Fold this protein.
Amino acid sequence: MTESSTPSRPAAFSYPGHGANARTGIAICHGFTGSPLSVMPWAEYLAEQGYAVTVPLLPGHGTDWRQLARSAWRDWYRCYEAAFLDLSARTDACFTAGLSMGGAIALLTASRHSVAGVSVVNPGLSFYDRRVRVIGLLKYFQRTTVPIQEDQTGAPATNDGDYSLTPLAAVHELKKLFAAAVRSLPRVDAPVQVFRSRTDAVVPPTSLGLLKKGLGAHLAPVVDLASSGHVATLDVDAPLIFTESAAFVGAHARRTSTLEAP
């Protein structure tokens, strides 16, 4: 990037697929206050393998925190669900995938629709901050808070919009989304691949515990990310995420096709 250039603004991503993998779809969901830019290298890698890939831009995201404060978790979910259903209608096997909050949305979608598999990176289902227990009341007295910052990360900054503040109304919506996703886990009947950073200042270890309890045998061995922070799709371990998720999709797409064959 030259000094005079500026980072691209966030936009939805869609690729129709090509070659032998074109009939396999992957719908990827970005995280809270993020945008498709945070998962774009992942999406582009899968597209290069020939898969049909879609990454919607969720309502209230890619703009600023004021817009986020006016959106609800069902708005985020329905946007992603619509993108998944559109892709699923055009493919023979379709996967859900996501980063952070996007992981919760991907899992919730998998509990409500037929999917070939789920691949999630640092999926969020719980919080570090105990104040979230009273967020429904706190939001009326405190409008915003500062976003969580990681001390050390190799992930580059992305131009996702103005999220210099985090609206507590949106955090309350996030809490409700997490609760819905946790309740839905026993209804997920597809294999689930999880990538987990050893150092994650955003998503606590309790999220993985909830996944293990709710998914049981559907949870594949967790892939350890030794050198990355929360946004691991842009960090040091990103190539591992790309190759391992592509292998997971390839294996389970073939298995799905075999099961559906007459």
Q: What stands out?
A: DSSP finds eight helices and nine strands in the chain.
